[in-house]
Amino acid sequence: MNPLKHVAIIMDGNGRWGIKYKNSRNAGHKAGLKTVEKIIKATIKNEIKYLTLYTFSTENWKRPKNEINYLFNLLENFLIDKIEDLNKQKIKLKIIGIKKFSKKLNKLLKYSEKKTSKNSKLQINLAINYGSKTELVGAFKKIKATKCKINEKNIDRNLQTKNIPDPDLLIRTGNTKRLSNFLLWQLAYAEIFFEKKLWPAFNEKDYNRIIYQFRNIKRNFGKI
User: Fold this and answer.
1) From CA 20, how far away is CA 2, in angstroms rounded?
2) CA atoms within 13 A on the CB side of 195
3) Would the pTM count as exceeding 0.90?
4) Contact 199, 174 (CB under 8 A)
5) What does the pLDDT average to over 77-104?
6) Which CATH class is domain 6-215?
7) Residue positions annotated with a catalytic role
């Protein structure tokens, strides 16, 4: 069976679920947060060490301002309510992306990372204001500034995910089949599962089914 250290998820479909069932995109985002909590628990049960969640992309700033404000308020409240519990569960929180938010949210993110920095049961990487192309350009700029050679090792060292193993498995919900500027470098050899279910409807049973399928795939990495 294939070892599984790192799962990455594009949590797509919150807005569409909200419109369909609650006549509100924001209601979908709120429901999606409950799914996040379920998947965190299932990740721990499966003894997976890293979980990366695509929370807000650099392109998501194009959305309506009221929706963006709601998303960030949701994140703020989640951190305020749950960070102590996450810490008790020995969960480490890391933010990847460009931290350009309100003073309150920046402070909460910094506190959450510091509070949980020594935990090792599970590391959750929240990709917030994250775009893989921006990350790669930043890595090349750092390499150029230090006059190092441009090679895979040095690119890895200068990514925001340095010291984090590349994802073994990517799951995207919402019946959309694209990567949307997410971990383009890191996903080079990940197994990719596209799910029809919208994120709020995704559950532990779906997650475990995909994990089972992943563990039984023959992975060649270019070999026969």
Assistant:
1) 37
2) 24
3) yes
4) yes
5) 96
6) alpha beta
7) 12, 60
